[in-house]
Amino acid sequence: MSKDTTGKNAYEIRLEVLQMAMGLADSRYHTALEQIRMTAEFEAVKTGSKYTYELPEDKREREAIKLAKKFYDFVENKQEAAE
């Protein structure tokens, strides 16, 4: 019996899942930031004033870990992943 050397071990899979989750969390943050910026700019143009805005709370790290757990549960085919 030959050993499968093309498969990924659990650490490699978890790393990829974490990278995907980090990418998604980062994308969500930047989308929210851009939406806030565009809204502030629109309001400033409408009123003829300078625009300022507050940055959204940066929860990317927590969100990435939460998403990674959800994704990994799906990979492991756990029941909780369906929720």
Task: Walk me through what this model shows.
By secondary structure, the protein is mostly helical. Helix content is 65%, strand content 0%. The protein has two helices and no strands. The protein is rod-shaped and about 70 Å long. The model has no long low-confidence stretch (mean pLDDT 86).
The whole-number mean of residue pLDDT values reads: 86
How can the largest sheet be summarized?
none
Shape: rod-shaped
Report the β-strand fraction as a percent range. Answer: under 5%
The sequence of SSEs as H and E is HH
Count of DSSP H/I helices: 2
| Radius of gyration based on Cα positions | 20 Å
- As a percent range, the share of helical residues equals 55-70%
* Low-confidence parts: none
Distance between the termini: 39 Å
Strands, total number: 0
The helix/strand class is: mainly alpha
